[in-house]
Amino acid sequence: MPDVQPMIEKVNGFKVAGVHAGLKKDGKLDFALIVSDTLCTAAGVFTTNYVKAAPVLLDMERLKHNSHRIRAVAINTASANACTGQQGIDNALQTARWVAEEIGCAEDEVLVMSTGVIGTQLPMEKIKHGVQLAAASLGDNWEAAARAIMTTDTRPKMASLMSDYGYQIAGIAKGAGMIAPNMATMLSVVVTDAAVDDDLGMVNDILKDVANGSFNCIAIDGDTSTNDTLLFLANKASSKFKNNETFEKDMGNLCIPLAQEIVRDGEGATKFITVVVRGAGRREAAKQVANTIAISPLVKTAFFGGDANWGRIMMAAGRAGVPLDPAKMRLWITSGERSSEDLLLFKYGTVANYSEAKATEIMQSSSITVLLDCGEGGPSAFVWTCDLSHDYVSINGDYRS
Amino acid sequence: MPDVQPMIEKVNGFKVAGVHAGLKKDGKLDFALIVSDTLCTAAGVFTTNYVKAAPVLLDMERLKHNSHRIRAVAINTASANACTGQQGIDNALQTARWVAEEIGCAEDEVLVMSTGVIGTQLPMEKIKHGVQLAAASLGDNWEAAARAIMTTDTRPKMASLMSDYGYQIAGIAKGAGMIAPNMATMLSVVVTDAAVDDDLGMVNDILKDVANGSFNCIAIDGDTSTNDTLLFLANKASSKFKNNETFEKDMGNLCIPLAQEIVRDGEGATKFITVVVRGAGRREAAKQVANTIAISPLVKTAFFGGDANWGRIMMAAGRAGVPLDPAKMRLWITSGERSSEDLLLFKYGTVANYSEAKATEIMQSSSITVLLDCGEGGPSAFVWTCDLSHDYVSINGDYRS
Questions:
Q1: CB contact under 8 A, B223 and A297
Q2: What pLDDT, in 10s, does the model give residues B54-70?
Q3: Looking at the domain B272-397, which fold is it?
Q4: Which of A8, A198, A347, B256 has the fewest CB atoms within 10 Å, counting from its CB?
C-alpha cells in the first residue's frame, strides 16, 4: 500500500496558488486557484441540502455537459454565495469568466467553490483581485492553496500519494464545523495525473464510492451545509494507470486521512471518536444508529467530559428510529481507532460488570472507539466524529463577528 | 379562559409529598409521591425510544389492564432505572409494592417514574426510606413534590387552573436536558378532580392530543430519553365536568405553560425561541422542517451569540429531508413569542433588504420567533426551543460527577 503523505510537493501538470484577496479581515490567505495545464476529466459529489449555494448549482450544471473539459477550480472564503438568488449565480459565472480570461481557456472549463457566511453576496472587486493575484502566482505551493480555503479550520488539510503504478493522487480539504454524513461544509479538491478511465459513469461511481467510505463517514454536529463539494480532476499527465479497482483503493487511501483530519480539526474538538455499529440488520440501519450516536449532543458532551456515561449511547441508539431490543444488545468501548470487544459496558439488557476506573481511563484518552452490537446480525457501519466542547459554542456563537 | 397559576395550592382528593431519601448527595429533595384518596382513571404518554426504562415498561403494562384503578405515583431521581435488565424491573415492582403497603392499596394500583443516570440500579434501601418518609408526610405541599423530581432543572415547574365548570387541573413537570419532540427526559404528572369520561379510549385520545400540542412541541437538543413519561390521573372528586372538548382545552391551557417552562429552564438556556414553519405542504413536513431548525447546533449557537446569522436557518431547513425550493421561500424574525411577518430576511431565493441593526436587536432579545414560509401552501407547525450555550456543555460534560 503506498504511503500517504500529509503534504503535497508537486503534481504533474497542475499548478496552484493561495493568495490574500482581502476577503478575510486578518490578512490571511483567502482565495485559492487550481489549474491544470491541459483539459481534465472531472467529477463531483455535492451537498444533499435542498438549499444549494450558487457555486454548487453552477458546478453541477457544468459537470453535466463538460466533464471531459475542465481546466480550473477557483475557491473563495468569507462568503458562501448561498441564498443569494440570481445575482449569486451571476457572480459565480463572473468569477469563472475572470479565471478563464487570466489562464486562457473557455469560461465553461472553470469550476468554482465558495465557503463562508450564507446570505451575503460575493464582494466582486475583491474576487477579481484574487483571481488576478492567484493567476500571477501559480506554482507548486499546495500548502498556500490549502490554507487559503480554511475558515474555522485551525490547520491546512493536505494529502498525497505516489501509487505503486506510477501515478500521483493529491487532495486538499477544509471542514471544521457543519460536518454531517452525506457531505457538509466541507470542500475538497482531489487531483491526479493518472490516465483514468474515459468512461464518465465509471469515474463518477469511483468518486461516489470513495466519498461514501471517507467524507460521508464523518459527522461533527449533524448539520449539512449548502456548499459541500468534493471535486475530482484527472489530467492524465503521467499516462499511468493500473485498473479501476486499484485506483479506487488508492483514492480511498488518500481520502480517508483527509476526512479524518477534518474530524480531528472539528470546531472545538478535543477527542477523535469512532462509532461502530453492527448487528442492526441492514447496513443502512447500522449506519443510522451510528450516526445518531455520533451527533447526539448528550453523547458528545459526555465524551468531552471524559465521563463513562454510556447510558447516553444506549439512549441515542434507541432514538435512532431503528427497532432495537436492548435484551439483545452489547456495548463496548476501547482506546484508539479500531473497534474491539475490549471493555464491555452493557450486555443483553443490563449493565455489565466492568471496572469504572478502566472505563474512565478509556473515556479520557484522545481517541476512543465505541462498538455497539444490536444482536440482530448483519454488517457493520462506522462514523468518525468528535466531542462537543465549550469551544464549539464559542466558535459558533460569534462566527460572523 | 380560566387563569393558569404557576403554583398549586391543593387538589381535591390528592395528597403529595417531596422528601429527601438520600438519593441526591447535596441533601435536596429527591423522592416524590402523589396519592389519590380514591381510585383514579389514568392514562399515559411514553417515550418513543426503543430503549425504555423499567418504570416506563411497568407503567405501560399496568395502564393496559388497570386504567380505572390507579391510586399513586412514586418518582425517584438520581437513577433512571434504564438499561438495568430484570433487576431493574424487579426494583420498580418493589418500589410500587412498598408504596402500596404504606398507603394501603393493591400493588398494581401504583405507578412509578425514575429520572437520573442511565445504567445504574436503584439504591433500594434509600428508595424504601423515601417511600416511608413520603407516605408519612403526605399533604398539600405540591412545591416539595415538584422540587423532588428536579435533576438539572433550576426551578420547580407547576401549574394549576380552576375551570369555568368547577373542576381543577394541576400538574408538575421536570425537564432541562434531553428534551426532544415526541417526549424526552421529561416527567410530568397531571391530576384532576374532574368527573372525566369513563371511556378510556377518549381519555387516551385527549391526553395524546394535549401532549402533541404542548410537550411534543418542545425541543432542547434533539435527544430523546429512555424515561419520558406524562401521566394523567383523574379521581373525579369534584363530580364536575362539562364535555370532552372543554376539558381538552383546559388541559391544553395547563400543559402549554408547563411545557414552555421546561424550555425556558432548558440546560444552559438563555433565550426562548419559537420556530414556525408554514407552506411546506403537509403539516408533518412543516413540523419536520421546524424541528430540524430547532435542534440544529449551528442555529442554536447563533441564537446564543445574538447574531442574525439567518443563513444557518435556511441551511437547517434545507437539510430537513423535505423537498424545498429556495426560490419560493421567505424568512422572517421577530421579538416575542408570536409569529409575525415582522423583519423579512430572505425572500424568494435571495437575501432581503433589511436593517442589520434591527435584525441584531431582535436576535438579542430574550424571546425570538422565526417564521419560515416554504411557499407551497399548507398548514403551519411550530416548535419551542432554546439556544445552545456554554452552560449546556458544562452541565452535560460532567453530569454524573
A1: yes
A2: 999 999 999 999 999 99
A3: Ubiquitin-like (UB roll) (3.10.20)
A4: A198
